[in-house]
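HNH endonuclease structure dump, as promised
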Amino acid sequence: MTDPYYRMFPREWDDLTSCLSLREEAGLLQLCNAAFIAGGKLIDEAETDRALAARCRVSPRRWQAIKARLFDTGLIEIIDGQLQPGAILGPRGRRPISAEERAAVEAECGGACVYCGTTEGPFEIDHVIPVARGGRHHRRNFALACQPCNRRKGAKTPEEWLQ
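structure tokens r here:
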């Protein structure tokens, strides 16, 4: 039997949605629920738009404004032609880290491992708070790590691993 629930992380939700109006946040929640029910992806964007506008009790035009705001904040995205929650849920599997995200993480980390400081690769993108421990598959949770550090860290938080 498939788990009828998905995990939500209230602190992260609050952090990521603090810039949204209540209607925008409600729209995002409805989108997350619909994506979960659909197995992680919402294939028919037009039908999804009509259904989400109705679920959010807003006009289709208002839903389009809400959806545009959610795109602008990166909280929803289109991957392989399918509308999906972006930063919040990572529903049923992770999307690949894009070249742009990887380049941004490398730049933020100065091209060095965040754990040992080496500038010698190979490098990997680490989930600072491991997904297995409630961390999200989102750029705010990515860091550059050399392969040996990333492998040794595994599913530990930085605090646990560096002790």
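Residues 89-93 have pLDDT under 50 and may be disordered.
lmk if u need the other ones
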